[in-house]
Amino acid sequence: MKKRWFWFVLALIVLFPFQSSFANQAVKEVGKGSFSLQYPPIDFDNIGDPGYADQQKEPPETIYRTDRVEGPMPTNRWWSSLAVDTYANNHYPHPFSVRQNEKGLNVFYDAPHNVVVHENSGAGTWHIVGAISTDFTIGHSNEINFNDAKVDDYGDWHVRSLAEKNQSSLAFTYGVGIPYIFAEYTGGHAVIDFPQNPQIWAQQGHIIGFSTHDNKQYAAFAPEGSNWETNGQQWENPSEFISVAKLPNTDAETLALFAEHAYSVVRETRADYAVNHETNEVKTTYSAETEAVAGGDNGTLLALYPHQYRHLSSGDLVDGLNLFTIRGDMKLIEGSEFETSLTYTGVLPSLPNAGIDTDRLSGYLHEARNDYPTGQDTYELGKYLGKLSNLAPLADQLGEQELGDEFREELQGHLEDWLRSTDENNAIKGENLFYYNENWGTLLGYHAAHGSAVRINDHHFHYGYFVKAAAEVARTNPDWAQDDEWGGMVNELIRDFAADREDPMYPYLRMFDPYSGHSWADGLATFDSGNNQESSSEAMHAWTNLILWAEATNDQELLDRAIYLYTTEMSAINEYFFDVYDEIHPPEYGPEIVTINWGGKMDHATWWNSGAVEKYAINWLPIHGGALYLGHHPEYVERAYQALKQTNGSEDWNWWSNMVWSYRALTDPNDAQRQMEQRIDDYTEFDPGDETIIERGSTKAQTYQWITSLASLGQVNPEITANIPTYAVFNKDGESVYVAYNYDDEARTVLFSDGHEATVDGNSYYVSQEGSGPPPTNPPEEPEEPGDDGNVIERGDFTVSIEQSQSDRVITFTPNTPARYVDLHYRINNGNQENVRMQQENGKWFLMLPDVENKSLSFRFTYEKDGPQYESEWFTYP
Hints:
With 878 residues, this protein is α+β, with helices and mostly antiparallel strands.
């Protein structure tokens, strides 16, 4: 019996290698998935590019931080080089520019005369460059050669650095939106060194107002009784504390205001948000805690970016005191707290199919089954997942459930492969897995790309596609998304790039800068120009997908966080990438977009050798159900399109043509359709080496559906909101079109802010008027009447006749060219609008309206002609 029991147990081990009792101790099991706790044995067999092979390494081992900084280390911050380099590279706590070195802190700030706008016409690039130099260095009286500078503390928008050697130390506290730099000493006192003699314009002993050689205004503050000794290019103060402020002018009143708060060191900074799901208001409260180290006021001054003061809801700006930065003027507020209010404008799993030719879309969807991943790293595979995720809802809406399920099954297969770190033998895989790096507190996917492992770059871009795929699977299969199934590992990915404050394994909102209002893509930020972000649209894609996942899994806390991220980043993109208000980019700057935003410059360039289209469209792609924000400012959209067209020289787009058509459809879908029809079918099969017509992360199917549906739905209208996260509102010829998607199993009543109410069935789309919009409140001011005989309407495209038969009316629509469909939209006695597909016979389209004698009739038509869809005006009868 004992021998037989032995063989039984051995058989269990062979047959069920994943049982928890035999778990791989180097792996963390999460539901049915897992991630590795040790650096994986990377599979290099298919990697011929040495540069790509280098991408498969780990982040730097050394983190420059003191014992005060525990837990997961923040990355992707404007100050991240402080944790990576011995002293730190340039970083940009606007309104300052600073750099740590062995002596202390080099201080600089941009003035308008420092900013250079440069065009390289040969490369098609533009650059707005804020100079980096040294106005002065804040140092230490007893130490001129510190070994390093370390992160000693940080908040949502400030950092404290510490340099120590022997018995001396020098700590600096500074941050975005803080117009002061605070310096604290042990073992010595304050020294300021100037490369050129400054001009002193205010001397109060312990307070000095001064200007640099190029006329930039500062003030240096020491506690009362500690007077400055000015010896040409070197100043000293016996105090163990000083602060330096950037001033907007040299007025005595301004100096006095700054002096009131110069001794209150910022110790904590927080941006706390709240989402009102009835009104879609997103409120953010920015608060700073200060400590008065030398008496005086315990408050502070804060400098607000344009995306903040444009939406200020609490707090009073100080009139006339603006601080110039490369991102526009910052405006001052006195006090330790202010509040902003933004409006969340909704996202969708996809646009609803509106006005499309069902056979044509079906054909395109079946063509897309032949597409394949263009790589097996986190980005290329991610883009493929995003592509399939966009196709599945379109197939479902056509009633082709089997095709939609096929797309989701492929998504599920890829996800389950990547979300488990061991192979069939329970050994850690060499590719298609995630590994937790405890040193930095980050989840790294291998194979990695674009520095996603070695630099902790782009995690919101890459992992956002995985979340998109998971959300689409969960939309129809919620059981798959349970924590004890595969949802736990999806949430692990989300925690890496968008964790909450209390997460013990990952830093709070790794990718997102709460004060700057947008994400930073580079994990280490070791560039001369600081940190950067190129594809702002992929950041918005990530936040969209968090919203969809939160809705699919009923995660209210994540939903609020995702809405905050989506709405805030949108406000910053409109300012700094698009400049929709035409107030930030210099007048001599030619393009209508900044492609890459840095801390210290703005580029109209990409990370690769690109043409004109890519320099715009990298901030448009991917097109998806959360991309409608691109159309919120139609005047800007038109401006950007025309600028791109002028640069390109024609509508023969050199690359990613479908991206341009999709963007064009936001304001002129008829023109977008015209351009699309000329070229889309020249793309006969998937070719990732030729993206002239279709960008590799998109498809003919989604391009056709997006453009055609927008032609039917109209222009997105962000002014009307709804009490559901997944919605959109459009304006079609002055009429509102309401769209919503309900993730619940049961029907849900949705109330729009203009009073429109809709019952949305479970797991379904609602479109108020099948893409044509509700009727106007009043008939057109000058309605068209039938012809002279009372029952004929003639137009260039069609003829309409109305025949009376007792109390019924038969409406006949005869197009001058064959139409694939004709829809009649009508109202009887100014009642609710009805929408019906007319019946076709021998090229004519018919519909009988019964029992309408002595009743007024208002009607119009939606009809297809040579591909595009057209709308008639409203008519009345009799």
